[in-house]
Amino acid sequence: MERLDGQVREELARLGPQGGMPDVVGAWASAVGPQIAANAWPARIARDGTLHVNASSSTWAFELSQLAPTLLDRLREALGENAPKALRFAAGHVPEPAAPPAGESPPSPVAPTREALQRAAELAAEIGDEVLRERVARAAAIALSRGRSDSPV
Length: 153
Description:
- It is a single chain.
- 54% of the residues lie in helices and 12% in strands.
- The protein has six helices and three strands.
- Helix 2 (20-32) packs across helix 4 (58-79) and helix 5 crosses helix 6 (130-150).
């Protein structure tokens, strides 16, 4: 069976600047980072070289518009002369993130420290409903422990 990737790449490149969408899509996630890549995805390259990017919401589109010069610099570093001339963001469809490979488990949750459990119990003590109090205390303990584990040593 003949591979189509070469023909698809050639056809997509024909529709945009040299290099075109395949190069942009290939470089996007590493150039902009995982959080932006999860909330914004390249949609098309206009004839004037502007990369139109779909964002998961109008809020993301606005924020990314403010970051456009920085993101464009990163794309230029990654793509060189094949980088888009400008960026334009609008709310639109963003693909779902890929599922982790089979056999790979998601990151393990943070185990609350004893101090975090104590502090969380103190914070939730005034909640009258027992089930709600326990759930809030558990969530607070995890959040308190996560904050501690994310801080520099």
